Inverse folding.
């Protein structure tokens, strides 16, 4: 099979297209012929081997899983012994966060893992939304965001941010989205109750106060956002923040048990895939697609993600649309 292979850590051009053995479906697994996948911020940071301490998990000298890619959407073409949830021909989507392997033409995944059926009305490239939704859901769930609460989402135009707006609205929260000029219409279309353009206004000077301020891109700080919080409010981040300061502040919050600063840890991805299919089917959730690339051009997709200017997701069309 054709796959994007990363033999070492480095810039986008280290990724090369190779012919590799096609995986087989083991016991309790299904083999999915991939039609669409994504290149995400996680893929880019893993390719860089960044941050350094992450290499304890991703591989000390090079990627432990040299075929990256977490999101997949495609068709089941083989089922292993003992498989009962899926059949050959089923259209499926999901996540492969432990083994990666989705930047390829086929991937084998556990039927008990983060995998679900794609709504019939949805194209494959519209279903590779799992990773952004997973991280957004993990943070909102960890906080316990409930109906009627106020949340500010900073960076509401990326994969995690666009997911967070939609998932927060589905919970009945009042959402303020902080984005740049070119994304204000998008944030409003996704359901944000208030859209703040950080390019023309100091969002930290707003009079509103929030139960949760969620930094979906890791570019703001708790000290800057502290005055936006209600007395029992909290600041959650999807990244380490400038100079890694969110790590130290979250550790201090854990020691003091204030939970004022938290780096959201990914929850069981099966949670989000379990309800995401229904949300996609009834229109409560939609993919925000920045651009499409062929698998042969995946290095260019990595380079685009590295600019940190993408809107929503960057799709790799493994099969022609």
């Amino acid at each position: 099979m054709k796959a994007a292979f990363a033999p070492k850590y480095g810039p986008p051009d280290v990724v090369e297209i190779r012919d590799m053995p096609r995986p087989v479906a083991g016991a309790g697994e299904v083999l999915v012929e991939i039609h669409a996948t994504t290149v995400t911020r996680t893929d880019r940071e893993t390719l860089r081997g960044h941050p350094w301490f992450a290499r304890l998990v991703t591989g000390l000298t090079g990627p432990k899983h040299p075929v990256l890619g977490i999101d997949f959407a495609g068709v089941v073409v083989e089922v292993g012994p003992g498989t009962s949830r899926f059949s050959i021909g089923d259209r499926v989507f999901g996540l492969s966060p432990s083994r990666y392997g989705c930047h390829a033409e086929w991937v084998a995944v556990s039927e008990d893992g983060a995998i679900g059926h794609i709504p019939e009305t949805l194209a494959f490239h519209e279903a590779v939304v799992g990773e952004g939704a997973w991280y957004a859901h993990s943070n909102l769930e960890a906080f316990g965001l409930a109906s009627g609460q106020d949340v500010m989402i900073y960076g509401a135009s990326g994969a995690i941010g666009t997911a967070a707006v939609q998932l927060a609205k589905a919970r009945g929260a009042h959402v303020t989205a902080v984005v740049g000029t070119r994304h204000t219409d998008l944030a409003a279309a996704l359901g944000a109750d208030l859209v703040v353009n950080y390019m023309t206004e100091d969002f930290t000077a707003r009079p509103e106060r929030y139960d949760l301020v969620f930094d979906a891109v890791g570019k703001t700080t708790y000290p800057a956002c502290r005055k936006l919080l209600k007395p029992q409010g909290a600041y959650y981040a999807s990244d380490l923040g400038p100079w890694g300061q969110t790590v130290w502040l979250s550790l201090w919050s854990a020691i003091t048990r204030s939970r004022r600063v938290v780096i959201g840890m990914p929850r069981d991805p099966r949670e989000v895939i379990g309800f995401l299919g229904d949300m996609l089917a009834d229109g409560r959730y939609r993919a925000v697609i920045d651009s499409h690339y062929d698998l042969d051009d995946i290095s260019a997709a990595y380079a685009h993600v590295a600019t940190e200017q993408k809107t929503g997701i960057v799709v790799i069309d493994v099969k022609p649309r």
In short: The chain has two domains: 2-128+287-317, 131-263. The chain has a mean pLDDT of 93. The domain at 2-128+287-317 is CATH 3.90.180.10 (Quinone Oxidoreductase; Chain A, domain 1). DSSP finds nine helices and 15 strands in the chain.
